[in-house]
Amino acid sequence: MKIENLCVRRLIGDVAGATTRGHKIAVKGGYIYQTFQGGYTLTPLGWRVVHKIENIIRDEMDKIDGQEILMPVVCTADLWRETGRYDAMAVLAKFKGSSGADYVICPTHEEVVTDYARSVISSYRQLPFMLYQIQTKFRDELRVRAGLIRTREFIMKDGYSFHETQEDLEHYYKLCFDAYYRIFRRCGLKNFIDVMSSTGDMGGAVAHEFQLVNEMGEDTLYVCDCGFRANKELEDTDSTNCPKCGGKMKKIRGIEIGNIFQLGKKYTESMHMTYTAADGTEKTPIMGCYGIGVGRTMAAILEESADDNGPVWNMETAPFAVEVIGLADKENKTFELAEKIYNDLHAAGVEVLLDNRDARAGEKFADADLIAAPIRLIVSQKNLDKNVIEVKYRVNDIDTSKMPNSFDIKTCVDDTIKTIQKLLHK
Ligand SMILES: [Zn+2]
Fold it and tell me: Which terminus of the chain, N or C, has less C-beta within 10 A?
């Protein structure tokens, strides 16, 4: 991709209306565009990042035997009436079709997935299993805030597991819990924790949230030195004493990026999903559900890592692995070489961006900071005189101080590919 063809508007100067650092950088870098209050278009840059996050999630869900599906966004009210949530859920967006039928725009999919699962499952031999999807959801929230942190429409990974016994659910719940730690680490997030949470609209007994510790977060969390951690909704008392050890708890703020619930039989029972157990009796499966806000994870990375100049992606989440920048000389030799390096990297399957515009170096570097490719190759006359291509890194989880700051012109492409591999497998 050549930077002049990238259909993204990057801004210079201040962003009006952005309330947090991450929101500001997301708008300034042209990752998101506000189409309406609480509804954003993910631009070619933003969508690349979201797609990278989705692929990390897919990889980790598949590792714990998740099976990806895709359910409808819009659903008739019948399924929601079966569980009683059609009337009970405040954020449920409802509308009437031209035939007069009642529809909902799904904010979550317990009803829809249970309807599918009950159509397939008849025997204990088919349990356990986990189905997940990555899809757009809609919550008719009264208030929205801070870019992608709380929006009405958002992309979520939602997973649902079905089990014979509580022990089996707990075993799988732990596998998913550990997978979430791997997912958020691979996204480059550092200061995130799990906290016990209330089950809210979902029902069930045990639930955890994954929270990025951040002063911009809208959730209040109580944490104790003994390891006890809970969401304020759960610890809804004025007491700041730890229920586990009696010590003084600290109050911190967090951005919720994921949640997992042991749902029990709330949905399978109300929707009459049964299977034949080994002893021949009819039984009801036990469910768990597992969510990750995909856009919100991008927002969380920006809140945590962005500096005044732009985002700091790692190699797994960056929209481009490499940006090649040619700086003007009299004979345009730098542009020619920059284009050759770009073509060779592109042919080798590297996600690479080329900036050979007729623009000032300062403008090119400011744009490069906003795109934040982890590897930046700078082709300038000064460096060509030394027979090298300058390398600059922008990665948030690796010390690059001991990595090469220039590649030999001849081996530049090979060395760049090696470095990408190194950064991916840290
Ligand atoms: Zn304690």
Answer: C
